Each structure stands twice: as structure tokens, then as C-alpha cells.
Amino acid sequence: MTTRLRVAMIGHGFMGAAHSQGWRVAPRFFDLPLDPVLHVVTGRDAGSTAAAAAKWGWAESSTDWRATIARDDVDVVDIVTPGDTHAEIAIAALEAGKHVLCEKPLANSVAEAEAMTQAAARAEARGIRSMVGFTYRRVPAATFARDLVAAGRLGDIRQVRAEYLQDWLMDAEAPMTWRLDKQKAGSGSLGDIGAHAVDLAEFITGQTVDSVSGIVETLVHERPLLGEGIGLSGTASAERGRVTVDDVALFTGRLSSGALASFEATRYRTGRKNALRVEVSGTRGALAFDLERLNELEFYDATVAETELGFRRILVTEHGHPYLEPWWPTGHILGYEHGFSHQVRDFSTAIAEGVAPRPSFADGLHVQRVLDAVERSSAAGSRWVPTND
Ligand code: SOE
């Protein structure tokens, strides 16, 4: 019989739904070495936490995360709360001997991310694993892009362009959410979605961003406070509040190979709903990934006959592609939610096999340093700032 992996999830908003789905579905498709059990979900409010438990299939609900972490019958703590609580919960969970999966960005500051990474290193020495939830690495086309680069199909990387564009804040009268509050979110577009662009560009190229020159800017400084409901589906109240985060972040990065990369993160790009795109250009070829077309990868092979040159669209839907074998008959497509099952597969496999999973807390700390360097660069008139790894 497969050993159970008893999971406690802290938080139950949008990401909580995505993670619940991952924990529930992954063992039904993948042959996992450990059997994840949706054991207990924890939130601030008893009523909505119990409702989330019933909706997503968690056996129990609780309003006390410290008590949850202290339980002997919990093996994994999955953190899907806003960034201001990541450090405290993750460090406590690691110290209590629990494996930890933490949503991105790892923390709200470099200092917090450093403390978390130190706690993760101490725990790792005792066989306790930790991972940060940069889930888009696990979209099959993005993983396949990484494989093509690693196999040398692009040659030497000359240039990279990474952007994450959304438009859900275009309406200046849409109510405040915690994602617009620096205290809770750490930063705006920069950390919320720019962090994904940095991680994915580094993952695909196998390189790191070593210095940056950037600018961050707030476009809408004030919004109605939330009346009733939650998030964007909530109603606006008559009171107004100040937006304390960036709305747009633009920056240039110098990669470890010396190549240049450009980055763009905004939630004000009309018509772009969830456009996480990475384009990589090398001496032997090029590729372009676009999350809005997540079952495809554009690939240009510069080594073919001149008369046959051109980007071609690879359908990343075959059983030979990363993660695809156990899903549907070949040629059938996947969606946003599948990345969360792939995350569960990789995390639980690493726990079972006793290896350190990636992206690690150290990887998350590195991204945090890039975000911090962009903010410092912007404050200093876009001067180049090392990311200090
Ligand atoms: C909101 O902009 C958001 O939900 C991010 O917080 C997620 O990380 C990203 O996956 C989708 O957009």
C-alpha cells in the first residue's frame, strides 16, 4: 500500500482552489510514490474555511495555523496565503518538521526570503523538503522549451525577452484587493507576475539574472475600498484607499552568460489576459512560449536549408512531451490547472526519493533579490544594480 502524504493547506482563496485541485487530481493520473491526502485546510474565518473544505474535499477545517502545524498527523504544509504571512508560517512549519510548499513570490522582502532559505537549509539537513510554487515551469510547453535549450538546439543564447501581461486592473474604479497593498503583497505587478517572468526565463535558459536596470510606476493611485464580497468580484464601497504598489515594471537584465534580457510586467495591458511570454534567441535557433497558447511552442531551427527557414508551431500534446504521458489520448490539450498537478507530482516524488526539489527556497530568494534590485534601480534613476547572489 502506498504511504499517505497528509497535507495541510494554509489559505483557501484563488490559489487554494488551484492547489486543492492539484492535490486531488495528481494521484488519479500519475502513479505517485506517496498518496496525497487533503487532510486539513486552515483560514482566518471559520465559516468560509469550512465552506472551502466542503467544496474542495478537505477532510477538516481549522482557524488556527499554529495548531495545524503542530499536528503529528500532518506531513506537508502548503502555503497559499498573501505574501506577508509566508515567512512566519513557512519557518514555523519547517521547524516543526513539515515539508513545505510555498506560493510565489517566496516572501515580501529579501530579509524574509533569506530567513526562509536558512530555515529550509536547516530542515533539508534533516530530510525535510521545501519548494516554491513557480508553477508555470510545469506547463509542458515551457518544460519542453527548457529541454530544447539544454539539448543545445538554440546554440548560444544571444537575447531573451520575457513579459507577463494582464489587464484586470484597467478599470480605475475596480475595488482595492490585497494585491494592491504593499504591506500584504510586497510589490505590485513586479512581484505578482514579474516574478513568474523572471523564474520562467531563468528556468528555460538555465541562466540567472545577475544585474538589472529598471523602472516601476504606479498608474492609478487611489481606488474604492472593497465593500462586500472578495477580490475582483467584490463590490466597491463609498470609501477610497491608496494603492501602494507598482502597476507597471519594466527592466533590462544582464544574464550570467553576458546576454541581455528584457522584462515587462503589467496588469494594465488592454486585451492581454494572462500573457506570460518568453522568447529566446540563440545562434542555432529560437523559441517563443506564450501561456495564452499553452499547448504550443514556436520553434525556429536556424540550421535547416535557407529555403526551409521559418518558425514552426509545435503542438506540445504528445505522450513524449514532458508530463503528458498519463493524461489524455495523444493530441488532446491541457489547461491552466494541470501545472498544479505536475507540481504535486514533482514535490511528492522528491519527498519520496529524498532529493531536494526545485524551484527551491534558494531559487525563490534569488528571484526576490532580482525584484528588490529592480525597485532599487528604479529609485536610483534606473542605474544598473547587481542582484547580489
Ligand atoms: C494575479 O495577477 C495572478 O493570479 C497571479 O497572482 C498568479 O501568480 C498568476 O498565476 C496569475 O495571475
UniProtKB/TrEMBL annotation:
Question: Any idea where the GFO/IDH/MocA-like oxidoreductase domain is?
Answer: 145-287
Keywords from the named record: NAD, Oxidoreductase
**Pfam families noted in UniProt:** GFO_IDH_MocA, GFO_IDH_MocA_C3
Name the InterPro entries for this protein: Gfo/Idh/MocA-like_OxRdtase_N, Gfo/Idh/MocA_oxidrdct_glycsds, GFO_IDH_MocA-like_dom, NAD(P)-bd_dom_sf
Domain Gfo/Idh/MocA-like oxidoreductase N-terminal span(s) in chain numbering:
5-125
Coiled-coil region list: none
Q: What is this protein called?
A: Gfo/Idh/MocA family oxidoreductase
